[in-house]
Amino acid sequence: MSRAFVKEDDDKGSEALPDRAISPHPNYVTAEGLAQIDVELERLQVALAAAGDDRTQRTAIERDLRYWRARRSTAEVVAPPNDSATVRFGSTVTIARDDGREQTWRIVGEDEANPAAGTLSYVAPLAIALTGKSVGDAVTVAGREAEIVRIC
What we know:
The chain is α/β, with parallel strands linked by helices. Helices cover 31% and strands 21% of the residues. It folds into 2 domains: 23-77, no CATH class; 92-151, Roll (Chitinase A, domain 3), CATH 3.10.50.30. The chain has helices at residues 31-51, 55-74, 125-130, and strands at 28-29, 76-77, 92-97, 102-108, 119-121, 138-141, 144-151.
C-alpha cells in the first residue's frame, strides 16, 4: 500500500523519546542504592511485558530502561565508612542550623537521594560542604551557617 493512503497519525507514539540525562559525576551508590536500581529494572521489565502493543507506553518504559541499565552498568558501590571521625559518602550527619533547628542527613548517590526522606546526593551543595568535616566544624551553605553535632 502506498503511504498516500495511510493516516499521518499511524506512527504517533512510535518515535523514540530522548534519553534521560545522565549525570557527568561518578555513579557512586550505597548497597541499598544498588538494590533500588535492581528493583526499578525489574519493575520496568514487568511493565514492559504488560504494555503489550501500546507504543506510547512501551516507548516511555524503554527510555527508562535505557537510563537504569546505564546507571546499573556504571554503579560503583561505596562501602559504608568504618569510622565516624569525618563526614564521607554513606555518613549520617546531624547539623544544628543557626536558627536552632537540627537536621539529619545521610549522604548517598544521586539516584537514591530524597531530601524529604533525609538523604542527600553527594554532589548536593550541603553534602559537598559537609564532606571531610568533623563534629564541631561549621559549614556555610546558601549564606546560612550550621554546625556538625553528630556523625554516624
